[in-house]
Predict the structure.
Amino acid sequence: MRILQAANFYHPTSGGLRTTMHQLASGYMRSGHESIMVVPGEIDADEDTPFGRRITVAAARLPGSGGYRVITDIDRLILTLDEVAPDRIEVSDRLTMRPLGWWARGSGVPSVVWAHERLDGVLRTFSRGLLPSQTVADCWNQVTASRFDRIVASTQFAGGEFDRINVPFARIPLGVDLQVFHPDRARPGLRDDLVHDSNEILIIMCTRLSREKRPEVGIDVIRELRKRGVKARLVILGDGPRRAHIQHLVRDLPVRLMGHVPDRWELAALLATADVMIAPGPIETFGLAALEALACGTPVVANRSGALTEVIGPRAGRAVDPSPSSFADAIEMVTTEPSRRVLARARAEEFPWSKTVSQMLTLHSDPTSLTTGADA
């Protein structure tokens, strides 16, 4: 099969989406299929990469997004699809690339669209109550579902808004590179560089610095721990439009901003060296960075309102209310559990990328083949 993946919001710092597309493409190629990606960029390009052919379409920056670009010339996109003539298309943007479902239907090409975000949650965050987020999301999702052959969601939470409108979806969890992300990546020398006291709890927060991710919660957690007399230090990995605001908040706190870490091996070393990761985002639909932390043997404390409850499971961390005191309580408990690293790694081993690729290929071969919705 010639499988084409199309996405906006693909950027050097877009960790989760970029990683997912690359891992799927590499897996498709290893299984004997042809992989093509169509993504936005500064200039037009057509290149061979380790994960297949990548066609870059020149696109304008989205203001206030931290550098993301969005392809708005749908006619140009359609011409590209006509030229490539894929056997299957896989769309990772149901907001701006929804017309590709029409193209696929008219061309007789089976199509799937990933629900990588909770549209109702995004609307709630950015409209600040000015829009009936659930109603708008339900209408949008109903039309989206009518244009594609199948909806794919990585967790039950991610697909929940389709359940709400009685649209079935295939639940296919994402994966983790269990060789790169491994407890053996921990480096004592790196820890010495990050903490000022060997007794400090080293907390990692790996997230995009944007409104919907709620990075400010991590700052409040450090304040709460200090108030309790707990020695702790927070290292923030990631970048985004709220970076300047976060820098202002942490001026007098034991917090270090390291920005986006493009090197996967260095990221693995940071995750494996930490004592715990926190994930405060309330609308995470999977939490790939958290799974990478688990693979490194680092437990995760996450906001219980998103999908990370499903990813962490009952023993690899804690899913708590989004208050500083709840996060602080969980951090103190998790970091004293003697088997925490073994349990974290064991949970991650349930999510190899090979399993994700296999399930996606099964879906591409027969869109009716996988169990859907709450029964998955």
Remarks:
- The chain has a mean pLDDT of 93.
- The CA atoms of residues 161 and 360 lie 21 Å apart.
